[in-house]
Design brief:
By secondary structure, this protein is mainly α. It has helices spanning about 10-20, 25-50, 55-70, 75-85, 90-105. It contains five helices and no strands.
Length: about 110
Amino acid sequence: MQSPAPRSRFTELSTATVHPGLAEAEHSRLSHVLAARSTLRMAEGALMVLGPMPLDDAARCLVDLSRMLTMHAHVVAEHVLDLVQGKPVPAHVGDALQAVLSQYRT
């Protein structure tokens, strides 16, 4: 039997207050989407610093990297964040990031 996932008081309060009729599955899906978007935005910020480049270019860079690696953008974003935090990433991800960044550097 799997134990239920921990819930924060903030999530419970905001769900009950903002969306009293929100089903648990909908809440879970929304939480997942918000987490993925946050990861994307943080990775864009990291690319802005690595580039250096403006936000629009960082967003396009992330999309280009996602296409080059044939991975979902949020997975690529997690790899970018791992890389800037000094965590290990697959070698092909680091190589692809260098290739894509070189296209955006002026």
